[in-house]
Amino acid sequence: xxxxxxxxxxxxxxxxxxxxxxxxxxxxxxxxxxxxxxxxxxxxxxxxxxxxxxxxxxxxxxxxxxxxxxxxxxxxxxxxxxxxxxxxxxxxxxxxxxxxxxxxxxxxxxxxxxxxxxxxxxxxxxxxxxxxxxxxxxxxxxxxxxxxxxxxxxxxxxxxxxxxxxxxxxxxxxxxxxxxxxxxxxxxxxxxxxxxxxxxxxxxxxxxxxxxxxxxxxxxxxxxxxxxxxxxxxxxxxxxxxxxxxxxxxxxxxxxxxxxxxxxxxxxxxxxxxxxxxxxxxxxxxxxxxxxxxxxxxxxxxxxxxxxxxxxxxxxxxxxxxxxxxxxxxxxxxxxxxxxxxxxxxxxxxxxxxxxxxxxxxxxxxxxxxxxxxxxxxxxxxxxxxxxxxxxxxx
Length: 395
Prior knowledge:
Layout: H1 2-14, H2 19-30, H3 34-52, H4 55-62, H5 64-82, H6 88-111, H7 113-116, H8 119-129, H9 131-152, H10 154-175, H11 182-195, H12 198-204, H13 209-242, H14 248-262, H15 265-276, H16 278-295, H17 302-315, H18 318-331, H19 336-365, H20 369-387
């Protein structure tokens, strides 16, 4: 759990979610448009998307431990290089590499849940691990404004964050283990077979066709999450600075509150999904997120913004933990990495589309009001899809 938290802290908490704090200063110094900011984020997700389907293959070839170490080294190294250049095209290319590293570390770590933990605990364990995302947000929210004011600008922030990611890579490489001892592994496999027959089906051939429909259904839900949440995390700070007129430090404090609140999101809703079912947990989370996106509209009073931050933070990383547990429940330990890679691939398409569409929409409308409204409506659509999940899995 600890090594997984370190890995997610580096791969997503720093490698992806720190971008929201870095973009305002980069936009000013490099004279970036909203659309160009969106493209930087989109290219990161393109890198993520290009790698997710290969995670299962690489995990089998070299093992999760070595793969995660190499991937996190890619994340930290590419961020160090971004801090050393000023050319927009080089920044885009390097941030693409960061996305590749994020995928090759995040997906194997989440899939490892099915190998190490029984179904009864998967939601809660995944929830603890995704706390790494929130820790990355908290750190960037406080650290980036301080570094930007040191006289070296946004580049120093990239250098420091890249160095921290490399330290996390070392920790994960030293602590992570590919699988438990044989006796515990047999107990975990037996528990999965008791809950569902997929583990047995894996030993005699392909799972039945209706399972593929569930994978596609999960992929559609995960797509909507990827499309909507990335609009919020990419452009919230930019909208606060450029539309509400906040100074960067104040916006950073608000962003840090998102991270602090998000620390409880994974464990809380991981437990809810274990106790009350994955379907019910997904419906609850998407409903709350819809309110968060709606309240982020800049024309609303300031207390609506605080409500938005609370609603998003309290559920921020719950959906990845629920989805990892759900895929582990359905696929079993042997197929978890491959199937989670597939639904994450679909999720990645949403992440690519979200910031680009939101940036273009903001460019044409002169602000992010319509972008946040679009995210809110799509979150409601995700509630409907979650309600139509064909099974109600519980830990």
